[in-house]
């Protein structure tokens, strides 16, 4: 195989020798389109960023076939890198990949109301106010997400209770699961952490309204506590 490659290179090298200077070629340049790999002369084929001459095919004390083999390895590596970069870029921007990586799903107890949240879930807070305790039966842990990131399926099975002028609370009309804490004029909405399917990939960050907490439990997890 080496002998065949060596002979092929010698024939190609002979075609690449400069022409003698003359009226039609006063500088003795090689004629256009002569010499080099036929792959490099073909239209619509890949041309490496390193020209053939840059690998010193005719350097002293190095067999020609080794130089050509070295150039060919560089060419293959460049083509492979281009394909790898293109594949990684397409995978990173694929809608299916984004959905699988950043979609969090959940539902009520009976499954009549389901929801999806796109993106990372912010660390939730635990609210110990009287309203949240009476609505949920204990303190209410929720994460605040942008409204645009939340998709609700079965919204016709949701019932909203206006607990104040600024807030309404959403629960399933069939099973009664507490699902949403909605500050009406804000661009975000609180979603109950207990309604999410695992994994949520987040952790509780703070306790709020601890001044109204029930007297039947203590807060001993070491997280920050706000009285309001």
Main CATH class of the largest domain: Mainly Beta
Q: Radius of gyration in whole Å, from Cα? A: 35 Å
User: End-to-end span in angstroms?
Assistant: 82 Å
Portion of residues within helices? 25-40%
Principal-axis shape equals elongated
DSSP E strands, number: 10
Notes on the structure:
- The chain has two domains: 2-93, no CATH class; 104-212, Metal Binding Protein, Guanine Nucleotide Exchange Factor, Chain A (Beta Complex).
- It has helices spanning 2-15, 38-41, 64-93, 95-102, 130-136, and strands spanning 103-107, 114-118, 125-127, 140-146, 150-153, 158-162, 167-172, 178-183, 188-192, 206-208.
- It contains five helices and ten strands, in the order ααααβββαβββββββ.
- The chain is an alpha+beta fold.
- The strands form two sheets. The chain has a seven-stranded mixed sheet with strand order 6-7-8-9-4-3-10.
- A hairpin with a 6-residue loop joins β1 and β2.
- Mean pLDDT is 78; it is low at 29-60 and 95-100.
In short:
It contains five helices and ten strands, in the order H-H-H-H-E-E-E-H-E-E-E-E-E-E-E. The chain has helices spanning 2-15, 38-41, 64-93, 95-102, 130-136; strands spanning 103-107, 114-118, 125-127, 140-146, 150-153, 158-162, 167-172, 178-183, 188-192, 206-208.
């Amino acid at each position: 195989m080496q002998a065949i490659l060596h002979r092929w290179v010698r024939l190609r090298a002979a075609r690449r020798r400069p022409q003698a200077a003359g009226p039609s070629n006063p500088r003795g340049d090689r004629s256009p389109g002569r010499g080099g790999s036929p792959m490099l002369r073909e239209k619509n084929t890949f041309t490496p960023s390193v020209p053939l001459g840059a690998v010193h095919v005719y350097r002293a004390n190095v067999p020609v076939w080794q130089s050509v083999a070295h150039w060919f390895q560089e060419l293959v590596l460049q083509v492979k890198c281009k394909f790898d970069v293109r594949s990684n870029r397409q995978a990173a921007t694929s809608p299916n990949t984004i959905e699988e990586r950043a979609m969090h799903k959940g539902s009520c107890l009976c499954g009549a109301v389901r929801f999806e949240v796109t993106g990372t879930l912010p660390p939730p807070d635990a609210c110990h106010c009287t309203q949240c305790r009476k609505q949920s039966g204990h303190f209410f842990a929720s994460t605040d997400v942008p409204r645009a990131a939340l998709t609700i399926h079965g919204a016709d099975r949701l019932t909203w209770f206006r607990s104040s002028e600024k807030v309404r609370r959403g629960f399933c009309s069939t099973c009664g699961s507490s699902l949403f804490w909605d500050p009406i004029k804000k661009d975000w909405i609180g979603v109950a952490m207990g309604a999410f399917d695992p994994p949520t990939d987040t952790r509780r960050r703070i306790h709020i309204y601890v001044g109204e907490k029930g007297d039947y439990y203590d807060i001993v997890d070491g997280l920050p506590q706000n009285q309001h």
